[in-house]
Amino acid sequence: MISFDKVAKVYADGTTALDQLSLEVPRGRLTVFVGPSGCGKTTALRMINRMVEPTSGTVTVNGTDVADVNPVRLRLGIGYVIQSAGLMPHQRVIDNVATVPVLKGQSRRAARKAAYQVLERVGLSPKVATRYPAQLSGGEQQRVGVARALAADPPILLMDEPFSAVDPVVRHDLQNEILRLQSELRKTVVFVTHDIDEAFRLGDVVAVFAPGGHLQQCDEPAKLLSRPANNFVSKFIGLGRGYRLLQLIDGAGLPLHDITCVTANTLRDKPLPDGWVLVVDDGHAPLGWIDANGLRRHQNGAALSDTVTVVGSVFRPTGNLSQALDAALSSPSSMGVAVDEDGKVIGAVLAADVLAAVTRRRQG
Ligand SMILES: Nc1ncnc2c1ncn2[C@@H]1O[C@H](COP(=O)(O)OP(=O)(O)O)[C@@H](O)[C@H]1O
Ligand SMILES: [Mg+2]
């Protein structure tokens, strides 16, 4: 849908920001441009909406050279989100979000009404609508930035390091939000980041850039991990390469081991077996682990103290090997709690089984 054909950019001071970029951005997928700072990602992104003009080569959207399209008209059909959210500080959130629909000719009233729906879509409460941007947290501002870009329902969304300035927990939430939105909206998204983890989490396709504006490889994440095109790519993917591969292998075939489960009632009334036991609620959902060896007991053997260690992450068999390993390693008993889709405990996964599954996969 978006295509770069031998595109180069040399800025006025002689800096080569992009060198002979040829690349297809597929329709309806999320494509990530990733690479170290200064390697031309922003330059390439901003050529799509004509905020930067190529020195040579062509950028086409749906087969039309963008150089032939009026830049204002072009931008009304392309959402754009940047790191600082780019909100207008003197306008309330609702008017920030309604900006583009109003520019496109919608009445202010209709645009505001629609803006409330878009705010909800990006996970914001209607309460923020009447606030000014400075009265929001960084994460909320980024959500408003996304809402504003989506308000006119453009088929293309450009995102330039949108989550780089927020803390890791909020960033994770925002990434999940993008994945959720994208599974509903299926826009053509180009997402720029210098963070390889973010690239692998979000990208259907990942394009790796190197200094000097040279595209090194453009592939699906699994392919980049298993077949990096050269040393630069393999170094940039870095030490986590093997670990990241775990995310791409599904965990359905892992063996599930038995866990001793007790409810809060049996915990008080009956002797506990030795070792780790899992406390579950009446619906068999996990509540926490108890080390039965470490407990003081009544004479009848029932537990006196109920110090429960929270269950780490849980594993669902629809998940991947990374989630299984995380469940095992974050569990005080070394047994990762596996649950079915209703959240009921169905057994335990072990780190050794995850590693065995990876080995089998490599041999097979
Ligand atoms: N307007 C400009 N004038 C001169 N050089 C620029 C300009 N914009 C970017 N550059 C340079 O072009 C190179 C690529 O920049 P950029 O596309 O912003 O990279 P990235 O987004 O990957 O960090 C850098 O060396 C940068 O300093
Ligand atoms: Mg940049």
TrEMBL record:
Gene3D superfamilies named in the record: P-loop containing nucleotide triphosphate hydrolases
EC nos: 7.6.2.9
Pfam family, one: ABC_tran
Molecular functions (GO terms): ABC-type quaternary ammonium compound transporting activity; ATP binding; ATP hydrolysis activity
Keywords: ATP-binding, Nucleotide-binding, Transport
Enzyme class: translocase
SMART domains hit by this protein: AAA
Annotated ranges, domain ABC transporter: 2-237
Similarity comment: family membership: Belongs to the ABC transporter superfamily.
Name of protein: ABC-type quaternary amine transporter
Organism lineage: Bacteria, Bacillati, Actinomycetota, Actinomycetes, Mycobacteriales
